[in-house]
């Protein structure tokens, strides 16, 4: 990992009602996009609030580019988009961004062009002269992005950045985030939109009941090493128990919707199917290949099972108790 | 901090509560002018008492004006600031701003100064309007020194109310703070009314003592009404007139001053404001959003 942008060590926040988060340890590199996932009430927002200096930790420590969280020096590095926020409805969009730029101590000469550039970038454009009270939720979310970016911060904490947006808006925000990542910004993304996390983040962590349940590279998380799929031609149902028994590998037929039409035109007993095998090591893949070919079947394709993040998420939290929102 | 003050002023200029207050002020001044004219015209019945009656009429008009004026001022202060911290936190507006590189104490002070300065400017306009109307129809004190002292006392309720409201905003929800401040100010006002009414009334010493104790305790918690009474006492030079007549018994419709608080009480109100200010600032500094 390159320079550490966010370093969290045993960070804990305990509330009287038992909520909060405990002993969270995460390190996020400069320029990295990190996805933070978890069910409602898991403590994700609490952690982010501690990192941006809104909430004091009970114990543990964290730094942003080496500066202790909550310090003015750390806040200089931060752009933050809170969840479920509203801006001053008596101000115009431009005035809100100007207010944030002044709070950041930006130079007066740079503020005006920066506001115009940002409002165009987030898709508000000329509606920046309208009062915020006339903005839709989506427009307010765009305005929030503009405010978060106003001081060109190296670290962005985004709490559900596109939850109020329509599909077009989400796509635009995703594109914007990708561009920001390409510019080298560190992104800490707290989102329920797992597709968003999957497309943007290199690493993720899953929080449940205030504790990190799983974490790792998205690429590792999404490829379940123990499951492989085999596209087999000339398959007969009787061969499946024999194949499992002979190889000693748990194999089942996998119903792939994409090949159902192809199957329907084949004669019964001579189908092209997908088989899914749960293996212990890669040598078993070769062994299974050999068995399939030796039985006169055609092996079209062999691939590891790539899980969608949603499946991974559901798998990780299923059966666990959640605190929920109450 | 100037950014926060500017933001507060812009907020006040554009919020409906300020517009409502300004409309109420204009209506009040119009109605007050009519009443002042009627009261002013009724003086001079007995030529031997004309000077005293003119003074009593002027005092009555001023008392009436500041009785309602202090109400409008409190309305502006409380209802423009009661949702400033907790209300902003409830809609996450505060969260996006407090992550900016600004010290929390500066934010709190900026908000406090914004509300207080705005309130003092409004108080000055209101003070001048009330005195001008009263001066048109009756004899009012002309001493500039007295007016400066009176205005400072009139304006002292502004930092007091802003301080208590901001402290309440760190303790309660926006709605809870609005209710709390209305109740608190109402209790102070009620205590003041009891004080005024009992001042001119003939009652047993034990009963009077009990009433003074109750109103005194209320004044300690919410000194706004007591400060207003002190302001009128200073403006009307009640201490020097005490040997000549009882102004409370002379004034109409219970529009008296009652027992004006001492200079020590004003000092207490100042210290009270300072303590509550730092308490509020500390709570804000430590608050988790």
Automatic annotation (TrEMBL), chain A:
Domain ABC transporter: 6-234
Keyword terms of this UniProt record: ATP-binding, Hydrolase, Nucleotide-binding, Transport
Annotated Pfam families: ABC_tran
Molecular functions per Gene Ontology: ATP binding; ATP hydrolysis activity
Keyword Cell membrane: no
Top-level class of the enzyme under EC nomenclature: hydrolase
Protein's name according to its UniProt entry: Monosaccharide-transporting ATPase
Family, per entry: Belongs to the ABC transporter superfamily.
Origin organism lineage: Bacteria, Bacillati, Bacillota, Bacilli, Bacillales
TrEMBL record, chain B:
Domain of life per record: Bacteria
Transmembrane annotation, as ranges: 17-39, 59-85, 112-138, 144-164, 171-190, 260-281
One Pfam family named in its UniProt record: ABC2_membrane_2
Keywords: Membrane, Transmembrane, Transmembrane helix
UniProt keyword Transmembrane helix present: yes
Name of the molecule in the record: ABC transporter permease
Lineage: Bacteria, Bacillati, Bacillota, Bacilli, Bacillales
